[in-house]
Amino acid sequence: MELRGIEFPPALGASGVQGFFGDPRHPEYKHSLIIKALFGDIFEGMGFVAKTATSYPNKGNVQLSAKDGFSFEELSPKAIHVMPFKKAALNAVGLSNEGYEFLLNTGIWQERLDPFMLSFMPIGSTSEVRKTETERFVLFLKKELPNFNSEIALQVNLSCPNTGHAQQMLLDEANVFFEILGELNIPLVPKINAVLPINVASKLMDHPLVDALCVSNTIPFGEFAHKIDWRKYSEKNGKSPLEKYGYPAGGLSGKPIFPIVVEWLKEFHMRRILNKNSKPIIAGGGVMTRKNVRALAQFKGVEAISIGSVGFLRPWRVPGIIWECHERLAQKD
CATH says 2-329 is which class? Predict the structure, then answer.
């Protein structure tokens, strides 16, 4: 997948599956050490996408290590409810991070040699605050860009289910965000979920500063009740398992959301034909098998596939999924 002359591999990590840095010298998830010991480097051949971060420090719902400020302190944070037998997970991490100034000052991103993507989200309580956050982010990143050894793109997260923002509100501000972020002169990739209406997603993708679209982030708990049997993923009282700890209901990832993504892409594909929009799509959400890769690769606009929850739900499958992405998409017209 080429964005502004930068080549990205056809297999890309979902934002955060490898943490903020994806650097083996700085393991951020304790479970990743276990997976590596059992299965080796399962992410070889996959492009790196950083975990979404914010301009200012944001406590979120997961405790970060006092030692480095970015790795998870616990092996199994209560804000993440993993259901391995159901091939699904709920999370309400809530963008726990120390802010972009802190993350950039580590110098770890700047050392990467292959093209990769950062991920940013403004989360302030008002539109003016979110605008200020975006401007602040641009100041931080623009200052450091000359120190990067590789070219980068930016995913603009417009879909996190755990920050309390209505998607329509964020969409109304998206043009403002893009204009501010355009000063960075790097590829911009809005990240949405399959809850977003097709016509709204099309408007996002048509923006002249937008280079591609990434779909789908997690599905907020309770959405698509006619397509997802939420009883399978809830407590006996019908509530999300995360709510008993005082967290938001969170977002669902894994196998249950894959059919929803496929259905969304079918409808979006028809809209693209009518609008003659040829920008690339990064498709994902519940990709658990090589067969899933083939199902997404059938859509003409899909030039890369996002690999996420399978990395901890079925880690031994990841190398085959990455290989399938290269096989199906690397030579795609």
Answer: alpha beta
